[in-house]
């Protein structure tokens, strides 16, 4: 097989591969930077929780309107927002910490979702929701993902300074400005949007993968935030391309292939990066004078 | 001249248990006040109340009309996440928030002021370092540099010298005295009586209730300090309701 056939032909010859590539590009630019902030806020696992919280909304949309992109998107976003804001309210007004309140609401949401799906769903549809369909992205889905990415980049640019402060010194932000809740909820809003965007391509279970894995890899390489964001996006894109090609040639599902490629980058970083496993085991280099 | 901060029969506390009990005192503008008292006397609680982080459960705190950020409050246990990737320069520059807000860039002049603040706390050369790589004393210096830029008329410091070496304490006290000379009102919780006697003209001695407030020499007497120790009884879960009149 020539390099052309290996690397370019799948995209050149097949429209669905090009669409998948465009979708992944959008996810890498939008969802992955959001994942970097999730990681830095120590909310990596909450992304997973949130992705489950979206299920009942998407299921309700499906129950009412069938396999409709719009209905499932709106439903997913609404369910995500209800969980985020209810949990946020409980966190700010009660003694429960963020993880506890979010866990409570997402578990309820997930249970409701499974209940709803079982009322009328067929297994095939459930598989679509859980694992997405990156190789079957239609115009509407693609437009939706691209729009959410544009919104995300714009939102992150607007929120950047308050969000960074909210992450590393929230009490200072509260003292100097009223933007603390704006940064907090604005960011969670972006998380929900991107999870919904990711669930169309990769499914609710896989969407978090392209957010967190490249971010964790980036954190191993650098302690500079802009560099982290750039590294994470680029490695997410590279993993997406590799994953799509792997899925094409080996005839395996694309969503998991992409996330596994992200995992490959993560493991390579664990081995090679300055913040990784081996850094502490290398021979000690001669220390500096000061 | 009217007082800047007036504590009017103030009670602050947690879950109905008072940590500050019926405190009345007037802090004049430009005062440099050491807040002194045994552990559990309510010193941190008082600062939290002034900073607006804790709502009074009785009485009032009268403050002048200030823009947001007009009170610079440095809590004892900072919620700061030291592992977050941010440089000393960026962290200190956030002291300019009132000027630059969420979106404004730093002008050349403002960059220079950030540099100057970093130099004022002897951290020059550390601008590009990550805050996570600083020692405890260096981090405290960086927090003071940020305070310099906050340019607030009221400054609240909760145990700024805890676990800080003598040299750093000396530098930081110097900054506090400078703020005092600039006419700012500074309330500082201090545990070291020696430091209080040497540097602070006014003293507020607390033991849940006010023991004494006035010139340091008149407050830091053996008799009053012993009274403060005696007053700081244990927190009683089954305490009866307080019947002191709320109206002053």
Q: What is the average per-residue confidence, as pLDDT of chain B, rounded to a whole number?
A: 88
Q: Tell me the CATH topology of the domain at 1-66 and 153-165 and 184-248 in chain B.
A: Rossmann fold
In percent, how much strand structure appears in the residues of chain B? 15-25%
Reported for the largest beta sheet of chain B, the result is: 6 strands, mixed
Shape of chain A: globular
* Count of separate DSSP helical elements of chain B: 9
Provide mean pLDDT of chain A, rounded. Answer: 87
- The value of Rg of chain A in angstroms is 20 Å
Level-1 CATH class name of chain A: Mainly Alpha
Largest sheet of chain A: none
Structural class of chain A: mainly alpha
How far apart are the first and last residues' alpha carbons of chain A, in Å? 55 Å
Strand content of chain A: under 5%
- Distance between the terminal alpha carbons of chain B, to the nearest Å? 22 Å
Most extensive interface, residues per chain? A-B, 24 and 27 residues
Strand element count of chain B:
9
What's the architecture of the domain at 1-66 and 153-165 and 184-248 in chain B, going by CATH?
A: 3-Layer(aba) Sandwich
Number of helices of chain A: 13
CATH architecture of chain A: Orthogonal Bundle
CATH topology tier name of chain A: ABC transporter involved in vitamin B12 uptake, BtuC
Oligomer: heterodimer
């Amino acid at each position: 097989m020539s390099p052309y056939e290996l690397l370019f032909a799948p995209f050149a010859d097949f429209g669905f591969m090009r669409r998948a590539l465009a979708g992944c590009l959008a996810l890498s630019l939008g969802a992955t930077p959001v994942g970097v902030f999730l990681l830095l806020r120590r909310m990596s696992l909450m992304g997973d929780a949130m992705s489950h919280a979206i299920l009942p909304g998407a299921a309700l949309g499906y129950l009412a309107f069938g396999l409709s992109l719009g209905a499932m998107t709106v439903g997913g976003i609404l369910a995500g927002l209800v969980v985020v804001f209810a949990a946020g309210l409980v966190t700010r007004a009660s003694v429960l910490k963020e993880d506890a309140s979010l866990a409570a609401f997402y578990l309820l949401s997930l249970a409701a979702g499974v209940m709803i799906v079982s009322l009328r769903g067929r297994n095939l549809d459930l598989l679509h929701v859980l694992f997405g369909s990156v190789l079957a992205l239609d115009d509407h889905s693609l437009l939706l993902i691209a729009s959410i990415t544009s919104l995300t980049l714009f939102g992150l640019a607007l929120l950047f300074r308050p969000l960074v402060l909210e992450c590393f010194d929230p009490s200072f932000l509260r003292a100097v400005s009223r933007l603390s809740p704006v940064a907090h909820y604005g960011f969670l809003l972006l998380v929900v949007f991107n999870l919904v965007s990711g669930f169309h391509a990769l499914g609710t279970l896989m969407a978090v993968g392209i957010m967190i894995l490249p971010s964790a890899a980036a954190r191993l390489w650098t302690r500079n935030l802009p560099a982290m964001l750039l590294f994470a996006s680029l490695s997410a894109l590279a993993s997406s391309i590799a994953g799509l090609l792997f899925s094409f040639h080996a005839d395996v599902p694309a969503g998991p292939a992409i996330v596994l490629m992200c995992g490959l980058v993560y493991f390579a970083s664990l081995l090679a990066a300055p913040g990784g496993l081996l850094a502490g085991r290398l021979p000690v280099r001669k220390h500096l004078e000061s | 001249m009217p007082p800047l901060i007036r504590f009017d029969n103030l009670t602050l506390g947690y879950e109905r248990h008072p940590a500050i009990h019926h405190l009345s005192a007037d802090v004049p503008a430009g005062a440099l006040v050491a807040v002194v008292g045994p552990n559990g006397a309510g010193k941190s609680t008082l600062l939290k109340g002034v900073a607006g982080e804790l709502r009074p459960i009785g009485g009032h705190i009268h403050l002048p009309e200030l823009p947001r950020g007009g009170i610079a409050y440095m809590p004892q246990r900072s919620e700061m996440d030291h592992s977050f990737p941010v440089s000393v320069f960026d962290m200190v520059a956030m002291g300019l928030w009132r000027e630059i807000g969420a979106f404004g860039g730093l002008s050349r002049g403002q960059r220079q002021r950030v540099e100057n603040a970093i130099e004022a706390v002897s951290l020059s050369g550390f601008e590009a370092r990550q805050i996570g790589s600083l020692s405890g004393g260096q981090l405290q210096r960086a927090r003071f540099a940020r305070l310099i830029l906050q340019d607030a008329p009221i400054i609240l410091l909760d145990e700024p010298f805890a676990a800080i070496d003598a040299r750093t304490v000396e530098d930081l006290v110097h900054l506090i005295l400078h703020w005092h000379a600039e006419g700012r009102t500074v309330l500082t919780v201090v545990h070291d009586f020696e430091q209080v006697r040497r540097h602070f003209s006014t003293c507020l001695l607390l033991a849940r209730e006010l023991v004494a407030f006035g010139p340091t020499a008149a407050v830091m007497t053996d008799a009053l300090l012993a009274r403060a120790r005696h007053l700081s009884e244990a927190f009683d879960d089954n305490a009866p309701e307080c019947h002191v009149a709320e109206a002053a």
